[in-house]
Amino acid sequence: MVHLSLEDLYKEVILDHYRSPRHKGRLDPHDIVLERNNPLCGDEIELFLKFDGDQLAGLSFDGKGCSISQASASMMAERLQGIAIKDATDLAGGIRKMMAGEEEGDADELGDLIALKGVVKYPVRIKCAMLGWTTLLEALDEAGKGTPS
Amino acid sequence: MSLDVQRIKKDFPILETLANGKRLVYLDSAVTSQKPRAVIDRMVRFYEEENANVHRGIYELGEKATAAYEGARDSVARFIGARSSRSIVFTRGTTESINLVRFTWARANIHEGDEILVTEMEHHSNLIPWQMLVTETGAVLKHLPIDDDGKLRIDLLGEYLTDKTKLVGMNLMSNVLGTINPVRTVADAAHAVGARILVDAAQAAPHLAFDVNELDCDFLAFSGHKMCGPTGVGILYGREDLLEEMPPFQGGGEMIREVWADHATWAEVPQKFEAGTPNVAQAVGLGAAIEYLEEIGMDAVREHEMQITKYALDRISSMGATIYGPKDVHERGGVIAFNLDEVHPHDMATIVDQEGLCIRAGHHCAQPLMRKLGVPATARASFYIYNTEEDVDALIDALEKSKGWFI
Question: Among A48, B65, B153, B178, which has the minimal tally of Cβ within 10 Å of its Cβ?
Answer without folding.
Answer: B153
